[in-house]
Amino acid sequence: MNTASLQHWREQPVRDLIEHILENYHQKHRQQLPDLINLSRKVESVHGDHPLAPAGLADHLSEMFQELESHMMKEEQILFPMLAGGIYPSGPINVMEEEHEQHEAMLEQLMVLAHQCKTPAGACGSWTALYAGVMELITDLRDHIELENTVLFVQPAPAMRVAAHGEGTCCGSCQ
User: Fold this and answer.
1) 156 falls in which pLDDT band (50, 70, 90)?
2) Which pairs with CB-CB distance under 8 Å and at least 24 residues apart come from 111-119?
């Protein structure tokens, strides 16, 4: 992700950033991974005897999808509502950052299984599309992680924060 884009999101309300992440990353990953799993199964089935076939790629993508789905659900149900309310809980944020490190390790293994996404000479359209999709997933997931780690999970300056109880506004639960 480029510096200008990161700076743009640092200047936007947290709720807008969360909505951007949900629409442009969470929804996209939920579409990308099942498609890549199916395509990988096809390529592995048809070209399994080729020495450069991505053996085990579909299983790895399936594992990634399960891990990522669990991670995104925790963000959507627990962490994002807290952040949107101006609460920056260090414990849940630390857990998400640790899981981001695990996702990065899974991406590295993905590249190994996909032979650095270099198709062999004469590769079919499905194999080519698979590796293009894997590269897109890698770029998207890394951008997603960077945006969360370096912008969303960083407590904003006081001028950008949502006012908390006793700071001039009330959500109605104080009474």
Assistant:
1) confident
2) 111/138, 113/54, 113/55, 113/56, 113/57, 113/60, 114/54, 114/57, 115/52, 115/54
